[in-house]
Recover the amino acids of this structure.
């Protein structure tokens, strides 16, 4: 079984920064893409950023230039550095990973962590 455990989010003032991390643990052979999604109240879950095992990245339009995704393959960990935060970044942030577990390619989700941007 695979588990994704996210760091605790928090309350940040507009213009501030916050770094999230997510550790993958359990029974798997390798990790393909890791990423972050978010869901605000009343809205659909959306892609924030994703990164492949080769460190190619993809960002949602609303966070380009402000957020940076990175990963440490040796630690099975993905990070999301969020700068210049805006109130509209307020959401529950979910870690996501596509992993090879035995012979199956599975998608796993973290439990979510709340990020609130407010003065």
């Amino acid at each position: 079984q695979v588990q994704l455990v996210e760091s605790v989010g928090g309350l940040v003032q507009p213009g501030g920064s916050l770094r999230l991390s997510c550790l993958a643990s359990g029974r798997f052979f390798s990790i393909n893409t890791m990423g972050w999604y978010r869901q605000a109240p009343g809205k659909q879950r959306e892609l924030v950023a994703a990164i492949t095992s080769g460190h190619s990245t993809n960002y949602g339009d609303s966070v380009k230039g402000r957020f940076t995704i990175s990963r440490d393959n040796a630690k099975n960990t993905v990070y999301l550095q969020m700068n210049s935060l805006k109130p509209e970044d307020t959401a529950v942030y979910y870690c996501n990973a596509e992993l090879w577990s035995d012979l199956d390619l599975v998608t796993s989700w973290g439990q979510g962590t709340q990020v609130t941007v407010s003065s």
DSSP finds no helices and eleven strands in the chain. The longest strand covers residues 91-101. The two ends are 40 Å apart (CA to CA).
